[in-house]
Specification:
7 strands, globular, single chain, 11 helices
Length: 281
């Protein structure tokens, strides 16, 4: 380990897998990911242990996965015929969730992280049709070409960007939102965002663990409403804190905080994070 625990964006995938593994190992787990421990490896545990702030707030990782699972399952029930997972990392939902065999699931990420995952899951069988696309989403031309090809294969696409946007700048998020909106097949988009106050807290408590190549950036002042200017309307917004309280995941010291009213569209004065489902309009 160097001074910075996170040296590359792909390290965050191993880090996230640690918390899925830990949740899986609880007797009353919210979800089961039998592959997470294998994928996290020793490197994932090293990263997690180097992040004391996130270790104290480990409830947020399990809560986020739980909320994404719930939204994804509901959207598939409502007829989504393709799921496009942008910056899929070490996500294993095609293997661990109950999914229709007819569903098309597309994982997009950098070659090294998908190669790593593919090698470790080589003997496993996904529940649906799974395709992995090795691409750098930071390239606008590559991204638009990929989206255009996928849009022609489905009529009701759900886009996932779990744990991605915080590492992008506002201009990059805007460009992604515009690109997705330009293809009518992309009907829904589920993402997670944080408030400016929470972003500052995370930056303050983790700046030594993040390398210069992995900046924490995106936290819109107007919360989910940020996306309305690009043709996306928030139709379902779940507070991470409130959900964690309902699931009895919060430490005692934070339970009173969860009782206070939250305003995701005006949350600059207090920490807030949420999982949001957007609809194209």
């Amino acid at each position: 380990m160097t001074d910075s625990a996170i040296q590359h964006i792909s390290d965050t995938a191993r880090w996230a897998a640690v918390y899925r593994a830990r949740e899986t190992e609880r007797k009353d787990a919210l979800f089961r990911d039998p592959f997470a421990r294998r994928l996290a490896g020793d490197r994932g545990e090293q990263i997690a242990k180097a992040m004391p702030f996130h270790e104290r707030h480990s409830w947020s990782w399990a809560t986020r996965t739980y909320l994404f699972d719930r939204v994804i399952s509901e959207q598939i029930r409502q007829g989504a015929d393709m799921v496009v997972n942008l910056a899929a990392g070490l996500d294993t939902r095609p293997y661990r969730m109950q999914l229709p065999a007819s569903l098309k699931w597309i994982e997009v990420d950098l070659p090294e992280i998908l190669d790593y995952k593919e090698a470790l899951l080589e003997a496993e069988k996904p529940a649906c049709t799974l395709q992995r696309v090795r691409a750098d989403l930071a390239s606008g031309g590559v991204r638009r070409s990929l989206l255009a090809s996928l849009a022609g294969e489905a009529t009701k696409v759900l886009v996932i960007s779990e744990g991605l946007l915080i590492y992008l700048g506002a201009k990059e998020v805007s460009a992604l939102a515009e690109d997705l909106k330009s293809f009518p097949a992309f009907k829904r988009w589920v993402l997670d965002i944080v408030s400016p106050r929470l972003l500052r807290m995370v930056q303050k408590n983790t700046h030594r663990q993040f390398g210069a190549e992995v900046p924490l950036q995106f936290a819109p002042d107007d919360g989910p409403e940020f996306f309305t200017r690009y043709g996306w309307h928030p139709i379902d917004v779940h507070s991470m804190l409130t959900t964690a309280a309902e699931l009895r995941l919060l430490p005692f010291s934070m339970r009173l905080l969860a009782l206070l009213p939250e305003r995701p569209n005006n949350s600059g004065s207090r920490p807030w994070s949420g999982v949001c489902l957007l609809a194209a309009y």
